[in-house]
């Protein structure tokens, strides 16, 4: 007696032929939450302002570039401040080593 026969003996409903088989797929197409509502009105919203699509893309790229330039300025400020702090740290470390070296006897051959 195999395992399936044991299961049928304990749970006879597993072997009943009137159990409906699922014919539908469990998979559904994935839509991002922010785009679900956009798919309903996609055809109406392709060109809402009557502008040429090329002009709209160029305008979008200009806005992205302007935002990127502002971000680069902030990054440059942070990078500059980091560079100055690092130079000060190295200078302090170098001075401490010079003081420590001055306390040691001079080198001999």
From TrEMBL:
UniProt keyword annotations, A-Z: Transcription, Transcription regulation
The organism's place on the tree of life at top rank: Eukaryota
InterPro entries per UniProt: bHLH92/bHLH041-like (IPR044658), HLH_DNA-bd_sf (IPR036638)
GO MF entries: protein dimerization activity
Lyase among keywords: no
PANTHER family, sorted: TRANSCRIPTION FACTOR BHLH041-RELATED-RELATED, TRANSCRIPTION FACTOR BHLH92
The protein, known as: BHLH domain-containing protein
Species for this entry: Nymphaea colorata (pocket water lily)
């Amino acid at each position: 007696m195999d395992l399936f026969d044991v299961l049928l003996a304990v749970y006879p409903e597993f072997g009943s032929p009137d159990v409906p088989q699922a014919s539908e797929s469990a998979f559904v197409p994935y839509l991002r939450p922010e785009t679900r509502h956009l798919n309903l009105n996609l055809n109406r919203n392709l060109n809402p302002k009557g502008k040429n699509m090329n002009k709209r893309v160029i305008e979008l790229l200009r806005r992205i570039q302007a935002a990127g330039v502002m971000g680069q300025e902030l990054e440059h400020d942070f990078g500059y401040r980091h560079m100055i702090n690092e130079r000060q740290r190295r200078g302090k470390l170098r001075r401490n080593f010079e003081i420590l070296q001055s306390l040691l006897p001079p080198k001999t051959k």
